[in-house]
Amino acid sequence: MLNSNDRIVKHKLGLLNLAEELGNVSRACKVMGVSRDTFYRYKEAAEDGGVDALLDKNRRVPNLKNRVDDATEQTVVCYAVDYPAHGQVRVGNELRKQGVFISPSGVRSVWLRHGLANFKGRLKALEAKVAEAQVQALERKKLDDEVSGEIETHHPGYLGSQDIFYVGTMKGVGRIYQQTYVDTYSKVAHAKLYSTKTPITAADLLNDKVLPFMEDNDLPVLRILTDRGTEYCGRPETHDYQLYLAVNQIDHTKTKVKSPQTNGIYERFHRTILDEFYRITFRKKLYETIQQLQEDLDDWINYYNTERTHQGKMCNGRTPMQTLLDDKQKWLEKALSQT
């Protein structure tokens, strides 16, 4: 059985089809008992919105003057979510204590507009609010951890942190840059000096020091975190660093835009190497070449990795190298479980 809308649409479509078959609008309107104005209104609606546009719609326009102001409406919604068991009369009484005046029927009207008309709907809104608050809290916690350097890392080799550090200007050589790599789990570090900062020097550190070291210790490098500098980011098919990562099947993660502090691991390492190595060695010795400085840097890095205890979360007073060797078993157990 056709409902009223179906019959109305059939009548309107019949008028349009009849006019097309007869090729005469006036005759079709006379047969169907409608005016030419009505015909053209139906035709325009069908052309603009299809068959759905021919449905009868409730033309009643809500009287916005009868609605409460936005501030009161939001107060009612918030109260309904916070106290879902309260009825509309009690809501009106409680809000009056806060200086918000709205009748019980006004409360119900607000509820109806926001799907809060029954207790179940208000409970559902409360659950959604709590769930959203929990998600926001977790996101804030994650951001705070990242800012503090507490990033996700599960075993040596799981995530490396790489960055470039400006050492200074050497007479006869020019600017000196240090490419730095720190294993975020064990805090084992590698560093190499260059006179330029380019994608090829970023890849060279990995190729010359990092990957050989990890291979000697039977550990992979699964992922590397860098900032968004041009040394590390570019078109994968033409960028030397990106190509090197792809060839060695290393995933690349970038720090958040305008948030370099998310790579806090190497930031702390750079502060340590600046205070404990560069500021001391430049006052004790005059360097003429990068190679001379690199030799002393290698000695200090070896001391940092194998002798200097680290108070980081994973090291807990062990040296970075001890941490790497002791916890390497975690990676092996995980790899075996996956196979």
UniProtKB/TrEMBL annotation:
NCBIfam families hit by this protein = transpos_IS481
From the Swiss-Prot or TrEMBL record, give the protein name. Answer: IS481 family transposase
Residue ranges of every copy of the Integrase catalytic domain listed in the record: 152-328
Q: Which PANTHER family does the protein's record reference?
A: TRANSPOSASE INSF FOR INSERTION SEQUENCE IS3B-RELATED, TRANSPOSASE INSO FOR INSERTION SEQUENCE ELEMENT IS911B-RELATED
Lineage, highest ranks first: Bacteria, Pseudomonadati, Pseudomonadota, Alphaproteobacteria, Kordiimonadales
Q: Which domain of life is it from?
A: Bacteria
* Xref: Pfam families: HTH_29, rve_3
What InterPro entries would the database entry show? Homeodomain-like_sf (IPR009057), Integrase_cat-core (IPR001584), IS481-like_transpos (IPR047656), RNaseH-like_sf (IPR012337), RNaseH_sf (IPR036397), Transposase_IS3/IS150/IS904 (IPR050900)
